[in-house]
Amino acid sequence: MITMSRDFKNDVLEASIKCFGRYGYKKTTINDICKEANVARQTLYNCFNSKADILTGALIYSADKSINSIKNKINSNTSFKKKLQLFCDEIVKGYIITQQSPAAKDLLDRNLPIDKSAQQKVDSQFCELIVSFIAPYKKNIESIGLDIKEFADLIYVSLRTVKYGATNVDHLKKLHASCITFLVSQLKLN
């Protein structure tokens, strides 16, 4: 496979995200992505092996953007509560985009062909971000018998998956706020 520039790949991934949002994964064609990205089909295949490969790339690309967005808004004085709120804001952004999509049901299909190792890598990156949020409180967390990485995973999975039970954006925000309030109060964190 020919190596393409990062900008080219990002353009294709941005185009694929638009197409997946517009048509859903199942109905999006490689031609749709090529047209949206303004690239030839063979040029796209020089970078990606399949539509599933593009979907996996889009997942990683979107996760990197979210993580960088959160990191860019945090400084040494940012409270634990605010860090979690920034994390939740990224989840809400994704929820809104998905809910506004005519293909929302398709996008929420948990059986999409995303490479499992890539999904695990994304999950791990988000968990490491949360570990960085809670690291100053490691003693508090360990004092109640929890491992910091396992606790970060619990926070990540809880905040990420609560969207599946939310009835709308306001409900999701309330669920996130309740989770954050509980975490802050129970661990006596700021």
List keywords for this structure.
190 residues; mainly alpha; Tetracycline Repressor, domain 2; 0% strand
Structure description:
22% of the residues are buried. Helix 4 (51-72) packs parallel to helix 7 (116-134). Helix content is 72%, strand content 0%. The chain starts with 5 loop residues before the first helix and ends with a helix. The radius of gyration is 18 Å and the shape is elongated. The chain is an all-alpha fold and 190 residues long. The mean pLDDT is 87. The protein contains 10 helices and no strands. It has a single domain (51-187), classed as Tetracycline Repressor, domain 2 (Orthogonal Bundle), CATH 1.10.357.
Sketch the topology as an H/E string, one letter per element. Answer: HHHHHHHHHH
What's the total number of strands? 0
Structural class: mainly alpha
Large-scale geometry: elongated
CATH class: Mainly Alpha
Q: Beta-sheet strand percentage?
A: under 5%
Amino-to-carboxy terminus distance? 50 Å
The Rg value, from CA coordinates, equals 18 Å
What is the number of independent domains? 1
Helix count from the secondary structure assignment: 10
Q: Biggest β-sheet: count, sense, barrel?
A: none
* CATH architecture descriptor text: Orthogonal Bundle
Poorly predicted runs are none
Helix fraction?
A: over 70%
> What is the average per-residue confidence, as pLDDT, rounded to a whole number?
87
CATH-assigned fold name: Tetracycline Repressor, domain 2
